Amino acid sequence: MAGGKGERFWPRSRRSLPKQFLRVTSETKTMIGETLERTLLAADPANVFISLREDLLPAARQCLPDFPLDQYIVEPVGRDTAAAMGLASVVVERRRPGTVLAILPSDHLVAPAAVFAEDLKSACRVAQEYDCLVTFGVRPERPETGFGYIELGEVIHTRDRANAYEVRRFTEKPDRATAEKYLKTGNFCWNSGMFVWKPSVFLGELEKFLPDHYHGLREIQEWADDPGFCEKARPVFERLEKISVDFGVMEKARNILCLRANFGWDDVGHWTALERVYPKAADGGTVKGPVVLSDVKNSMVLNFDDASVVAVMGLKDVVVVKTADAVLVCDRRSDEEMKKLLRLISDRDDLKKFL
Amino acid sequence: MAGGKGERFWPRSRRSLPKQFLRVTSETKTMIGETLERTLLAADPANVFISLREDLLPAARQCLPDFPLDQYIVEPVGRDTAAAMGLASVVVERRRPGTVLAILPSDHLVAPAAVFAEDLKSACRVAQEYDCLVTFGVRPERPETGFGYIELGEVIHTRDRANAYEVRRFTEKPDRATAEKYLKTGNFCWNSGMFVWKPSVFLGELEKFLPDHYHGLREIQEWADDPGFCEKARPVFERLEKISVDFGVMEKARNILCLRANFGWDDVGHWTALERVYPKAADGGTVKGPVVLSDVKNSMVLNFDDASVVAVMGLKDVVVVKTADAVLVCDRRSDEEMKKLLRLISDRDDLKKFL
User: Fold this and answer.
1) Which neighbouring-strand residues pair with B21?
2) Hey, are the CB atoms on B326 and A308 less than 8 Å from each other?
3) Chain A contacts of B333, Cβ < 8 Å?
4) SS3 assignment, position B113
5) Which of A314, A318, A338 sits opposite B334 (nearest CB)?
6) What stretch of H or E contains A166?
7) Average pLDDT of adjacent 10-residue blocks, chain B of 355 residues
8) What are phi and psi of A205, to 5 degrees?
9) Which residue of A has its CA nearest to B320?
10) Closest-CA distance of chain A to residue B322, Å
């Protein structure tokens, strides 16, 4: 899944080059490059597909020049994750009949890669055995309020002896007190946003909970191998409601099975999430690139433009990010609230080009 | 006087191009250009000299290509204002015998220019009539803690009927309570840092209060017209103590006379001083250039790089300044404390070039 906007990583992430195509958690590899690399530890290269919006194809092609063009699943327009996962399901059902589909975000931090690959293979066997939506739950390390949670039910003894559980419910991002309660009870996991299923199983759930999606996707399924797919499918796709797979399906479906992940995971969804990735400077701040701090506390100052300097003085709890043509300065508590700022930029004809 | 470092205007002001050579208070004119322009309303072009350190000569020549090279008074090294004004005095005494010397900072905001020119002519007549150090006092508009003050004594009825006063004392930058008291009493003025005197009068005071300065300057006076002046004077100049004219002379001298200025004045000594110059944005912030603010209060965001955008979100009381190759982010209360930051930059071999 490489159709995300990565808006909360502005100004590094841009409309035409969102977070998954950037080097964020590695100095040398893009996030999608890392995702592809660890996926190939478990999957045949011919069976890996990249799903994205049509307008992101140039960025993806530049980022992964060797990836086969016919293994892209291209959405004519973005219609959120329920539609994207539905499209992937109808395409894979048609092009690789009888296989299990694993859906993996391309902009998350997952490590170690080998542990992930084993877990993924396990999950595929479980999805093959059970006609279920299989998901990965990550054991929470802190009372995180930025992730969704999965409440686990009874253990399921699968043939594979995977660490599998029934799912009681998917829950929204909790407040702090709720997150602390979740952490204590021990039967809540972070929702990793990774899913494994037989396409037919997911499409069955879509038929129940999002029938318009289901019928639209069945309508365009027959064009899946057509070079003009995108143009043909556009009118159908444009009619689909924008709704996430969590809201639209996972919170309603009953046949979900959760595997406790053995790998480490972080969605690195906003700037301060990188404090968990980057080394801390001596004074407790997190810095990158040519940066000078004077009397600064609990802040993150990232300068991605080596031809420049960023100097911060007499402040605490701030995030400063500089790229070649843009600077973001915000309170660390506001770094998740980027949408409003980007709308303000989008409203300014002189500044749109910086989106 | 164009030898200032303008450090508190970093990152716009740089070692090789300090504030006086920048367009700060005008979109089209440099501060020294504006200073020269208003001075020429009162003075013959042949009688205007620019005093600066040798290393600033290239910047000045570029900024004022038509200004005659032989009207620069060049200090071999910077030794603060007592030495700079002493050097100007010995040079002018030798090259324009019998004239009065007006010493004018080149990086202050002074307006209207015509009013200034009249005041300056008045001051020159007073300095001609009285063997005094004549200074301009500016009627305070607010309890400013960033300026020095002059306490006025008795009115002096000069032949010129200038608004002249005896000076009780020069005072340091006051704290807030003291500044409020000064404002109430009505007989305190801001010290504008402009002085008018016969060179011989100032040199007489130097002889009393800074005899090493006096003797050193007398020693180099004879080379004033020598093209090799700078090299010859260097060893003498290097031995002079770094001391300001306020500390070294004005706070001790008795024969000072203060004219109340009719012109408006501001030393625009640091970034937030520009809030008094720039128009306020609708939300109460002061912005310049391509800038976006979201939920920002009482802040100043100046982007001097039109090819970029600066976005600030969820903060109050901050100053953000961007140039082509540097960004400053600081608390508005710390924008006067630039020295420590610049020392940190100076200590970093990779960052020195940004000074």
Assistant:
1) none
2) yes
3) 314
4) helix
5) A314
6) strand A164-171
7) 92 94 91 97 97 94 95 94 97 95 97 96 94 95 92 87 88 92 94 97 98 96 89 94 94 94 92 86 82 93 96 96 97 88 94 94
8) -70, -40
9) A329
10) 8
